[in-house]
Design goal:
The chain is α/β, with parallel strands linked by helices and 209 residues long. It has 11 helices and 9 strands. The strands form 2 sheets. The protein has a 7-stranded parallel sheet with strand order 3-2-1-9-8-7-6, sandwiched between helices. The radius of gyration is 16 Å and the shape is globular. The two termini are 29 Å apart. The structure holds 3-phosphoglyceric acid. 3-phosphoglyceric acid binds next to strand 9 and helix 10.
């Protein structure tokens, strides 16, 4: 299953990062992203009742119609809650050995946030299959190509400040996938979920080009 998850994440290219202020906003924004064609969802644990949303999305999009993961997972307890709720992958803003070990125990991909070569080396040595470069826009797309010199086989997920306008730059510099939050889901704050779906479709189209 882990191999299947990794190949699905790679194929989808753009992971939608959902960080709503309420359960309803987050859940509706996630559905809008899936409708717009972004079916890999990172449901962050700053969203209220994130575990319930993960369960509900898995129920409503069965048989691989969507790939639901958990984000902002800072400790092993949260990772366990996320995995038991059905999260297929786990993301952190930072690297946590405890989360890495827990995810390895359940054979769930762990995508930790890293900013330096030392962070990356540690995360790789704990078995992370994908490394999230975070906050990516602070360093820019060239950081990806620079890192792929000494780490030629590393799979990177640029996250933090990725937009429709710079999406191509990240992939041109060798990112494997990207994570996109605010520039995709901002209209959800005003209840405009149709616009979130349109944004998702725009990302899908840009990635497919
Ligand atoms: C987040 O922290 O919510 C993610 O890193 C997404 O960042 P973004 O909103 O800048 O895309």
């Amino acid at each position: 299953q882990k191999i299947d998850t990794l190949s699905k994440i790679r194929d989808t290219g753009v992971v939608a990062v959902l960080r709503g202020d309420s359960k309803e906003e987050t859940s509706k924004a996630a559905v809008a992203c899936i409708k717009g064609g972004l079916n890999a969802i990172e449901l962050t644990f700053t969203a209220p009742h994130a575990d319930e949303i993960i369960e509900e999305l898995n129920r409503d999009y069965p048989n691989g119609q969507a790939l639901i993961g958990a984000g902002t997972v800072l400790d092993a307890s949260t990772a366990r809650i996320a995995i038991l709720a059905g999260a297929k992958f786990v993301v952190s803003p930072s690297f946590s050995k405890a989360v890495a070990k827990l995810c390895n125990l359940y054979s769930i991909p762990y995508i930790p946030g890293c900013m330096t070569p030392s962070d990356i080396q540690t995360a790789l040595s704990y078995g992370s299959d994908i490394i999230k470069l975070f906050p990516a826009a602070i360093v820019g797309p060239e950081m990806i190509s620079e890192l792929r010199g000494p780490f030629p086989n590393v799979n990177l997920m640029a996250t933090g400040g990725v937009t429709l306008a710079n999406l191509k730059d990240w992939f041109d510099n060798g990112t494997t996938i990207v994570g996109v939050g605010g520039s995709l889901t901002a209209p959800a704050k005003d209840g405009d979920f149709a616009q979130v779906a349109k944004n998702a479709k725009a990302y899908r189209d840009e990635f497919n080009q």
